[in-house]
Amino acid sequence: MGDAQKNWGISLLLVDIEAALMEERARAAVLQRSTVAVIGRLQEQMEELAMKAQSVRDGNSPFVLSTSYRIPNTPLQFVSRYEQGRANIELTLTPDKDPTKSEGGFAESIGPANIGVSFDVGV
Predict the structure, then answer these.
(1) Strand order in 76-83's β-sheet?
(2) Which of 19, 28, 112, 113 is the most exposed place for a label (fewest CB within 10 A)?
(3) Counting beta carbons within 10 angstroms of the beta carbon of residue 93, is it exposed (0 to 12), middle (13 to 18) or buried (19 or more)?
(4) Phi, psi at residue 59, to the nearest 5°?
(5) What is the mean pLDDT of residues 54-75?
(6) What predicted TM-score, i.e. pTM, was given to this entire model?
(7) How is the chain split into domains, by residue range?
(8) Which domain of life is it from (predicted)?
(9) Percent of the chain with pLDDT over 90
(10) pLDDT at 39
């Protein structure tokens, strides 16, 4: 075998090695991108869980507590509501439930006293 043939054979071998090395680098890059994407999704899920856990610790659980009291013989009604860390207190002017039984009868009971008015205070 001559020197030219040996050099040619070595050159082909080097080309094959370089091609295999490039293929391996491409596979490693794809694997790295996939790994980064999976880690990103895991971080997002961990952040969501942390926010849910924080809201439970803060008392922001999804429940509602509501009460109301109508003052007898008046059109006034107190309504209170607590939801997700926020309390509302309302003083409401409510119409008579049965205007025919109100003082003055049906015709006189339709007036400003039977118009619903609400006043809200957020605490």
Answers:
(1) 64-70, 76-83, 86-93, 117-122
(2) 112
(3) middle
(4) 85, 15
(5) 74
(6) 0.37
(7) 1-60, 64-122
(8) Eukaryota
(9) 21
(10) 92
